[in-house]
Amino acid sequence: MTQNETVKQHDERLHTETHAADDAGGKLLEVKDLHVSFFTPAGEVKAVGGISYSVNYGEVMGIVGESGSGKSVEAYSVIGLLQSPGKVIGGSITFEGEDVLAFTKDQMTDFRGNKVAMIFQNPMTCLNPVYTVGNQLIEALKAHDKSISKEDAAKRAMEMLELVGINNVEKRMKQYPHEFSGGMRQRVMIAMGLICHPKLLIADEPTTALDVTIQAQILELMKDLQKKTHMGIIFITHNLGVVAEICDKVCVMYAGKMVEQGPVDDIFYNPSHPYTVGLLRSMPRVDAESHERLIPIEGTPVDMLNPPEGCPFAPRCEHAMKICLKKMPPYVEIGKDHRSACWLRVQDQLEREKTGTGEVESHE
C-alpha cells in the first residue's frame, strides 16, 4: 500500500468517525479554579494554584512555562492520571458538560482513549520493552473499541505508523521498542495517542526527541487530523516556536499559576506579563539583529513548599513593587480574550480609567 493510498483510506475513516459539525466552536473542556497539591513528608507542595481555562472543539491551546511550573500536573489531573501523593483539592474539570472529577473507575477508563488521549513526554519509559510495537498499538485500540477485530486493528495500526512517518510498517510492527530510535519511539507514542481519534488530545512535549524536519511533519499531521475531526489539543511545550506554529491561544504558567492567557498573536506581539516578556527575550529570533544578545531571566524558580504570599514571579521581576510581594494580583483584561495577572497592568487599567482611553500598549 502506498503512502497516498494509506492517507486516502485514513481520511475516509475520519469522515465517518468525525464529530458532529454543530460541536465545532463550542466548549469541549473547561477547567475552573483548579488546585492540585502533593502532600509530602516535608509539607504540602501546591503544584497548581487555582488555574482556569477552556478548550473549544477544533482549537489548539498551548501551555508554556519552565520546568516545575505545573504544566504536566494539570494535564494529568484532567486525564485522571495524578499519582499519590498528588490530589485535586479544589476546582472543577468539565468535559462536554460532564464532571470529570466525579467519574467512576469504569467511566474514567472509557473517558481515556475514546474521548481524551495523551502523548507523554518520555517515549523511552512509556512503551513496554517486552511487547512488540504492533502488539501495543493493537491492544491500545482494542481496549477502547471492543467490536474491532484483531486484523482490522492491525491494519489501522499500520496506517497510523505510516501516517507518522515510519516506513516498512509490517516489519516494524513485529519489532520491540529497543529496536527503534528515540525519535521513532516518540512517533509510535503519537500514533498510539491518535489511533482512537479522541476529541481531546493532550500532547506533553510531543516533539522533544525529533529532529527539525520530522518535527515539522508531525506538527502538520496533528494540525491536519485536528481540522478533520474538530479535535481539541492541549499542547504543552517549552518551545515557543512550536507554539507560534500550531496554537490558537496560549496560557503562560509560572509556579502553578496562569500568569497570562490570550490569543497566540497577542502573546507574541503584545505580551503583558513580565514573565512572558522574559521568556520571549530569552528565545532566539530569526528577525533579530545579528549581534543581539539573549537576555536570561535572573534568579531561581520559586520553592513550592514555601511560595511567596504575593505574585510568585515577584522575587525575579525587575519591575516588582511592595504590593507584588504581599498580594497576588487580580486578572486584568488586556484585550479580547487576553488577560494578565500583574500589578503593573492594574496600574495601567487605573490610568486608562482616569484618562478615558481603552488602549493597551505593548510592554515587550
Give descriptors for this structure.
364 residues; alpha/beta; Rossmann fold; 8-stranded mixed β-sheet; 4-stranded antiparallel β-sheet; 38% helix; 23% strand; globular; membrane; transport
Molecular structure report:
It is found in: Cell membrane. It is a peripheral membrane protein. Helices cover 38% and strands 23% of the residues. It has 364 residues and is of the alpha/beta class. The protein folds into 2 domains: 3-247, 3-Layer(aba) Sandwich (Rossmann fold); 279-355, no CATH class. The strands form 2 sheets. The chain has an 8-stranded mixed sheet, sandwiched between helices. The protein has a 4-stranded antiparallel sheet with strand order 2-1-4-5, with helices on one face. A hairpin with a 2-residue loop joins strand 4 and strand 5 (98-99). Helix 6 packs across helix 8 (182-194). Mean pLDDT is 85; it is low at 14-24.
Briefly characterize the structure:
38% of the residues lie in helices and 23% in strands. The protein has 364 residues and is an alpha/beta fold.
* Strand tally: 12
Helix content: 25-40%
Text of the CATH class of the largest domain: Alpha Beta
Oligomer: single chain
Q: Taking Cα atoms only, what radius of gyration do you get, to the nearest Å? A: 22 Å
- The fraction of residues in strands falls at 15-25%
CATH homology group of the largest domain: P-loop containing nucleotide triphosphate hydrolases
Q: Specify the overall morphology.
A: globular
Average of pLDDT: 85
Write the layout of secondary structure elements.
Elements: H1 3-17, E1 27-40, E2 43-56, E3 60-64, H2 71-79, E4 86-95, E5 98-99, H3 105-114, E6 116-119, H4 123-126, H5 133-144, H6 150-163, H7 169-173, H8 182-194, E7 200-204, H9 212-229, E8 232-237, H10 240-246, E9 249-254, E10 257-263, H11 264-269, H12 274-281, H13 322-326, E11 331-335, E12 338-341, H14 343-355
Parallel strand pairs: 3-8, 3-9, 6-7, 7-8
Antiparallel strand pairs: 1-2, 1-4, 4-5, 9-10, 10-12, 11-12
